[in-house]
Known about the structure:
Blueprint: E1 19-24, E2 37-42, H1 45-59, H2 61-71
Amino acid sequence: MDVIPGxxxxxxxxxSRVGVFYGMxxxxxxxxxxxxxxxxxxxxxxxxxxxxxxxKHLLDIVTRLGDWYLLHGVSSFV
Length: 78
């Protein structure tokens, strides 16, 4: 099933300890793709949730546009 275009296999990883884990891709989606290295950094839930909150502002397009408008002196759209 891995070589069927448009078919996505979803999985869940559960780790019993924190750390950095290394591996290699085992999918058949392109020439040389099986040699792509993979690194997974496992952290406690609190650290991950804090990281998500820190990045929420960077990925929120409305917030980013609002910051740009404030930086450039735009106070109204009317």
